[in-house]
Design a protein that fits this description.
about 325 residues
Length: about 325
């Protein structure tokens, strides 16, 4: 009996090897199919081109910030950095209020993202609970704000009457309730089996306890998705500074970038005048130009937010796919 079992195992392994061999042959035949080869080549070329179009502008700006400012201003730096130096990043730190603007942008991004994600997740969960008072009415009321708004002047007057003009909270409170993010969270929560929440309630969990202990650990993918959207929106926003802030101590980095790009020529003189005597003795290729100021400040502004994507990337795709299927 043992010999028969051993023989059967050998025969099974032999059949498996034959199947794998045939499968590899079929794959080779497919790969050698001219149509498949042509289509694969075209696909690689097209996606490589689009990847290049997306990445090259950032690469171009970066290599110009570390290359000779004189060559950069004349448009001589296109694919490879020339006469590499990092003086521009040191010089940009001499620009007044840049550090304070960075702190304001960082603060609004962190606090605004936390508040937006928390409220979106909680309201998204509550709008799925049939026990919520007038649930459908409040959900439709929130969704209606996606399509209707009062306009810039009424909103400005409202914010001013609420004391939000020249107030740091103007960056955070107006974006706390975001209908689109609430819809994403609600859609994701609806994909969770109701039995899980019902079991928690039978065990004595209240609404808040069930939300923190059961819902939040399960909906991490959509939370990461909302966090990315909110953080990018908060970091890149400058229009609210333009409309609701006149105190330069509350200027964000994006608004400061907008001003500096428009005033790059005067900033060139400012940066060059604030360098030390030893720096003045350095090569003229390191002297700040309008082009170097624009590009260096752009990298300083864009760089930090690019670090958000690698951290949340594994959650991002899952969260978006669930919203796409259910929504």
């Amino acid at each position: 009996m043992a010999k028969q079992t051993f023989a059967e195992k050998r025969a099974e392994k032999k059949q498996l090897r034959i199947y794998e061999k045939e499968h590899r042959k079929n794959l080779r035949r497919r790969k050698q199919d001219p149509i498949d080869v042509i289509m694969s080549t075209i696909t690689y070329i097209v996606y490589t081109f689009f990847a290049f179009v997306c990445v090259y502008p950032f690469y171009y700006i970066f290599i110009n910030t570390i290359s000779s400012n004189e060559l950069s201003a004349r448009g001589k730096v296109n694919f490879w950095p020339k006469e590499i130096h990092f003086t521009n990043y040191i010089n940009v730190s001499h620009i007044p209020d840049l550090i304070n603007a960075f702190k304001i942008s960082l603060g609004r991004t962190i606090l605004g993202t936390i508040l937006t994600v928390s409220i979106s997740a909680f309201l998204g969960y509550m709008f799925t609970r049939e026990t919520m008072w007038m649930r459908k009415f409040w959900y439709r009321f929130v969704i209606a704000t996606m399509y209707f708004n009062a306009g810039i002047i009424p909103i400005f007057l409202t914010f001013k009457s609420l004391g939000l003009y020249n107030n740091f909270l103007v960056y955070i409170l107006p974006t706390a309730v975001a209908p689109f993010y609430i819809v994403l969270c609600k859609t994701f929560v609806e994909s969770i089996p109701k039995d899980l929440i019902d079991a928690a309630e039978l065990d004595g969990c209240g609404t808040l306890r069930a939300f923190t202990a059961i819902i939040i650990p399960v909906i991490k993918p959509i939370l990461a998705t909302v966090a990315i959207f909110s953080a990018v929106s908060q970091w890149n926003s400058f229009q609210d500074t333009l409309l609701y802030v006149s105190d330069n101590k509350l200027y964000t980095l994006q608004f400061t970038l907008y001003q500096y790009i428009n005033q790059a020529s005067s900033l060139k003189a400012l940066v060059n005048n604030t360098t030390s005597s030893s720096s003045m003795a350095a090569s003229l290729a390191h002297a700040a130009t309008a082009t170097s100021i624009r590009m260096t400040v752009t990298i300083v502004v864009v760089g930090p937010i690019l670090l958000v994507y690698p951290i949340f990337q594994r959650y991002f795709v899952k969260g978006i796919m669930v919203g796409a299927v259910k929504g």
